[in-house]
Amino acid sequence: MIKKRISWPNGARCACCVSFDMDADSVLHLTKPNDGFRYVSAISGLQYGPYVAIPRIIDSYKSLNIKQTFFIPAWCVENYPKTVELILESGHEIGVHGYLHENLLDYTLDGERQILEKAMNIFQNYFGYVPKGFRAPLYNFTNNSGELLVEYGFNYDSSLMGDDMPYVITPKNGEIIELPTHWGMDDGPQYIQPFIYTGRPTRSPTSGFEIFKQEFFAAYKYGSLWLPVFHPYASGRLARWDVISSFLEELVSKGDVWFATLGEIATYVRNQIQVGNYHPLKIKVPQYSQ
To answer: What pTM was computed for the model?
Structure first.
């Protein structure tokens, strides 16, 4: 089923990172710059993430003794600094996720560069360091994104969907580790309502999580990477997180599942490539010339 296999640390059957995109209400202010402040109910639901869900998630990770990765728009650093501090103080990794959760496809090379630099500067000013992992908002990695990430020294990206295993993307100026996921591993289609209710059905906590469980069992069976993409205001809700955290307890108790930050996974993969133990798929980006 998988041709290019990797041996995970300590005999683990698969690698796992339950990643979170802590967008909070950034997207609301992006899409409604003039009157977003009027959407008090929508803001309250989105603020559930930094105020309630993140502390709950951090507590669960502490009890499980695992460290994971959170992608955060830099606007959220400015508006929820204590929440970001809690994530960092608890030993978890933070990755760049735009400034205001911008759709990068709407921007030129210079515009995308400005967004990336702005986000990096905010992380530097608040915490004294710049994250080395990146996930494009909406997964909208552009024909310029890879070159910019290499230029600014990022270690990995987690926006693309080209394999079940970690692979390598090759912009014209270098290489970067890609830690792939896909829309079937995103909680948006299962749980997230838009700002104005449109009648789209929301799955129950157990039925909505079933797709993630099946993805895990396949990763465990074939030795791949299990990389869910959750949002605190959605999957961090009480009943949903109760289901998810209970499943994570089962996985940790197995003893042969490697939970790690994406930064740790990327470093391990790169080392395995360098010593000749792993020969991943390599994909040129952008795939086509203009």
So the answer is: 0.96
